[in-house]
Amino acid sequence: MTDRNPLDMPRLRAAVAGTYAHVTHTESTGSTNADLVSAAQQGAPAWTAAVTEYQSAGRGRHGRVWTAPKSSQVILSILLRPPAETRQRLGTLPLVTGLAILDALPIDARLKWPNDVLVQGRKLCGILGEAVALDEHPALVMGLGLNVSLTEAELPVPHAISLDLAFPGMEFDRTELTAQILLALHRRLTQWINDDPTLIRDYRSVCSSIGQQVKVLLPGDETLLGEAVGVADDGRLRVVDKRGVSHVLAAGDVTHLRLQ
């Protein structure tokens, strides 16, 4: 089992030197996203990162609250201050964040649209983005929680998984893993800021939703059944229902029916 020692911050900061303006570390906090939203409002620079050992008020999509034992996850958030023109591409930002995490992982994983990191069909990592400002000087926070050493009894939901559960013969260096995720985020999000057209191609290559029979819970509690046939350039999911009608979705909770 991977140890639950605190992050080695001198080693982590050395590994990401030159890419991040600041990397803050706390033993415990309510939410690293909330910490960076507050820091952004006080003028913190782009590429400020916050990491913590324990988060007491972590949130996922739709405000779902989750917690995990101290030092059992990689928990971090980063602050972006991209150019104003990136506001037209905000729909792809969560997808690119998920792609970066796959880049950093030393194991095989896939993305369920839009950005759930799946290992063996179960959720390894959750991602939450928040906008601090969307005016001519945008400020955005992207946060994540990745399960490293959680046991079955500690998982927040039955369909979650941790690295230790998925790969019991391996041990994971949480400091190295955190550093690799930060570096991959910097690389992929810089591509996003620069409107690199290869990003969506790379995303499609690791999106396991494409080609799957899916059930999508839409806003308003409507349900759509069909086949996910692709991801558009703007990040929206294309689903063809049983009548052959094509739907292009910007939001929704996707279930892969073959995994039920």
TrEMBL record:
Q: Would you tell me the Gene Ontology cellular component terms?
A: cytoplasm
Ranges for the BPL/LPL catalytic domain? 6-193
Q: Which UniProt keywords apply?
A: ATP-binding, Biotin, Ligase, Nucleotide-binding
The top EC class, named as a word, is: ligase
The record, for Gene3D superfamilies, names: 2.30.30.100, Bira Bifunctional Protein, Domain 2 (3.30.930.10)
NCBIfam families per the record? birA_ligase (TIGR00121)
Q: What is this protein called?
A: biotin--[biotin carboxyl-carrier protein] ligase
Q: Could you tell me which species this protein originates from?
A: Corynebacterium canis
What is the taxonomic lineage of the source species?
Bacteria, Bacillati, Actinomycetota, Actinomycetes, Mycobacteriales
